[in-house]
Prior knowledge:
There is one protein chain. About 45% of the residues are buried. This protein is α/β, with parallel strands linked by helices. The strands form three sheets. Strands 1-2-3-4-5-6 form a six-stranded mixed β-sheet, covered by helices on one side. Helix content is about 40%, strand content about 25%. The protein starts with a helix and ends with a helix. Helix 5 (about 180-190) crosses helix 10 (about 275-290) and helix 6 packs antiparallel against helix 7 (about 220-235).
Amino acid sequence: SSRRVESSSRVVESSRQVLRRISSYLLRSTIIMSSCSVIPVPALADNYMYLIIDRHSNEAAAIDPVDIGAIQKAASEHNATITTILTTHNHWDHSGGNIKLTKALSTIDRVYGGVGDDVPAVTHEVKDGDSFSVGRTHVKVLFTPCHTPGHVCYYVDGHHVFTGDTMFISGCGNFNTGTPSQMVEAFDKLLALPDFTKVWAGHEYTAKNCAFACYADSNNAELKQRLTWAEEQGSLHAGGKGTIPSTIAMEKKCNPFARIDHLSMMEFCGECANDRSERMRLVRKGKDDWGRR
């Protein structure tokens, strides 16, 4: 009997070792399969710009390069050549560097922006499902109007999504002239991406967003841990570590705007929240009212 137990224990341990090796291999494969690296570059008080650098060619795309000096410095430090600008939306703190950067760098031959968003210096207006490449790095466009009429997110290399002012870490952007139903549709597109997808947002708002999320979703233990973590991380802009990136999986757990179908958020919205768009509106209103306290 004891021999059978020992034998079973060896089998279990052997199986665990195999699983660990498989997990390690899959992790290494995921890293190897990624055709690009992402460099976050802080700008202004709380904006994030990004460099997407294709590993094969060192060709780079600059996302929302409002501070052209900082983005050029980052490209130089990584021996990358900026050939492309990806603009999430037309607000000055995201698109305000486009004209200056295209004048400063003759290597830039493409400036992308959403259809109808009037992005400065745009050469390619894109819509939902459009795709293109930066070197060998594949980019797919997700059309996410609400914050602005032509806001887009960029889904890159099957590993990263750059969400501008649509999805923040544990938050979402103001609707401005958009509608709650547009933000619902935008979040549905983002939340349909694989759970491991890294989320790179347009601003460092995480600590404040988590504070509201804990207020709205008060029984969410993971949210409380995330708030503590965000406060400890601090802002990259002020010498801290920052809180980017998140993942789609984490946003499903800790973003109240991603959780409008969960019972806790339905209770927060009250009995009148019979449809998803109304719940999105009420969570946004709750955030705005909370922020004025």
